[in-house]
């Protein structure tokens, strides 16, 4: 199981929690499990999210491996200028 | 260790200040910019724009324009297809209104004619029947229930019930309990701030030339920060396959984020398809201001509690951003960046995006961060003044570092804020005496940076020179940086490498030149492409020597036997291997395609001295120093240029630049005469201090540098004005009238 920290405004879509646990070994599995477990997260995940693994931010990287003890933080999709 | 990871090394090419490859072309006028493209039979395109801030378009009568001799095509929104995807539909509707004109300057029709005079005359013959609607141009008005609704039905699921339909999204970040933190504070400051929308102010207006052939193939030449993204957008709007649309980026006269989308390109393509001839559109400056993307304008509330010793005990921010008439997510970035510089136990940031009748926001260096950090850094400075504390000491006491749980969620790995603050504190500027009436301000800044999709092809020519093909327009010196990294990896001189920017049919997809990504991400792809070419050259040398390829290594630009057991052979240089490449297996090349992550966040600290003229309200910038963690500076002069450019643009935001709307909802100052950007005579030399803290996610330790520099100037200037004039302004820009008004009331 992987602990995933969500940003505050996703709380309402995740049963009031900002930290949830899902079974996932990769970024893609994590997104799939989040949508399955918390369907309310699907609109945001479809619009785009980034993922921080141990402080390194990934924008799109489905097959990035996630260790069970990794710090996993879901973030809005990064944009820049 | 992965090749992506930083390995300490002695550089021979990287870090030198080589001549810029585009310099001669640019100073002699040979460089081809967007407006320089021509084609046989080319028509001139012109766009009719709404004079109203908000109006329903009842009908558009184009018959008289179409009948005018010399007019070859007329276009309205009805000529473009319906789009299912919200993002594409917004881009298309911003290029050409359908149903409603949403802001002053919104395109409502276009013509292509044999010359500019005919096109201009044709625009006057187009009759648009408008039903003028109530408008709203200020975020604080638009957010109120009952305000005129700009676009209905665009609120996301995360917007609380009961808010105006103009509120399209809401976000919240943070941890701990700010209320508990405030209870521990010795002093709490709570202030409201406003910042004006500003324009990127690039010197080159948007320009493009589109040519659609009768068999459906199309070519587009344009000034852009990302030809591949232009292709994606235009292909979707035109209903074309990507392979049939080739987009070539011109040299670019500034972008800063504002050329990361399309405004006129789909219009030119649609006109060309209709007319059967090439169509060129060049925006006027008036059009650039009224109809391309400025920044968001904002309204913000900040509350920070501090203990007597300078420790921040609690922090909270409420950010209301408006990116104009279409939804945007910039407030998400501002909300994440607001308190990112600090190690806080109790922090919370709330953000709302609000629609107004203004042009659609486009990115501008670190989009969303300068505004939020201006407000936060202003309150921290006021707390320092109230408690009699040194501003840098307070920031050092609270600085985020390795292991800090950031205000936006992740725990920071190695970061450079403390080193940057310490460099600022010990710099002579910080302790230099000030004359009476002068003030010194400082501010921290933060930006995320990212990597992204990058393709590089590197060809070894038979004469021993090297051609690198990459797909990102060079807006800040990337051709020099990429050539330097290729030369470094191959072990040859910089002058032996030429880097060119490919069109969309010549190389795989490359993300836009944005997010401070190119030197980092395309540089990484270049290093890996060079390593691929080196592997081939080692194999060729091994064949020539009759030994295993594993027994050959690359050293100082030549293949050499890996050890005494490999045999005794003299080094075989790149040029020697290249010269016989046809005989040893064919041309030699390396390429690499990757979606890069691991860019690493960036911090900066700025110090500025100012003097406020209390009679005129004008602020003179006396001295300015930028400190920034740049990772390895591949070409230090370009890095300094990015830091200086960010500072100067930030000075403009702080002191003068603003979109001014009249009561009629029309933009009052769409010219450089009335939209005042800083010029050289306004400014002192911007001094720079580069801190080279290696990014662990790049083989050479490179970090993005293009955006962070615009973040600190807003608060640094405001804090300096506060200490110079004894007034604390809470609205940007601090233009002379606004300063005078504040002085009068103080």
List keywords for this structure.
heterodimer; A: 81 residues; alpha+beta; Ubiquitin-like (UB roll); 5-stranded mixed sheet; 26% strand; globular; B: 746 residues; Aldehyde Oxidoreductase, domain 4; Aldehyde Oxidoreductase, domain 3; 3 domains; 7-stranded mixed sheet; 6-stranded mixed sheet; 21 helices; 27 strands; 29% helix; 24% strand
Give a brief outline of the structure.
The complex is a heterodimer of chains A (81) and B (746). Chain A is of the alpha+beta class. Chain A is built from two helices and five strands; from the N terminus they run E-E-H-H-E-E-E.
Major sheet strand order of chain A: 2-1-5-3-4
On the 0 to 100 scale, the average pLDDT of chain A is 93
Distance between the termini of chain B: 61 Å
Unreliable residue stretches of chain B: none
Number of strands of chain A: 5
Under CATH at level 1, the class of chain A stands as Alpha Beta
Q: Rounded to an integer, what's the Rg of chain A over CA atoms? A: 12 Å
Residues in helix, % of chain A = 10-25%
* SS field, number of helical segments of chain A: 2
